[in-house]
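Quick one, tokens below. Sequence please?
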């Protein structure tokens, strides 16, 4: 298993980690397989979405803020209930296929770390299995 450390800059942001994941895959001897990508955090997720237009990232963050506001009638004492809810909706793991030592994504897709309670240093766990 490989562990990436990702520094986030804002309370909420989507950070493109696709290049880091591609570097990891290319550093291995696995040419075909499955890459498991997992965030061991309850306020930070992993997602795949469009990576061609940067406004998509800001639209996602803004709509999540609209739906799940920072201040509401939450009872969680840490004050970050919105981040827990957003992470539950986005999810904290994905897997992608590896073919010919490359991550298989759609034309416009990228893989993002979804920060909802930053800034922090987050961990992303990677596990690559060959097929």
């Amino acid at each position: 298993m490989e562990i990436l450390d990702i520094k986030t800059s804002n309370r909420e942001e989507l950070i493109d980690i696709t290049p880091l994941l591609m570097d990891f895959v290319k550093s291995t001897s696995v040419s075909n397989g499955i890459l498991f990508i997992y965030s061991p955090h309850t306020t930070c997720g992993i997602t795949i979405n469009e990576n061609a237009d940067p406004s998509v990232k800001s639209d996602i963050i803004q709509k999540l803020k609209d739906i799940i506001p920072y201040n509401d009638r939450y009872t969680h004492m840490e004050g970050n209930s919105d981040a827990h809810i957003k992470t539950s909706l986005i999810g904290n793991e994905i897997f992608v296929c590896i073919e010919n030592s490359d991550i298989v994504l759609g034309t416009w897709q990228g893989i993002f770390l979804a920060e909802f309670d930053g800034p922090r240093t987050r961990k992303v766990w990677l596990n690559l299995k060959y097929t």
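Residues 55-67 form the longest helix (13 residues). The radius of gyration is 15 Å.
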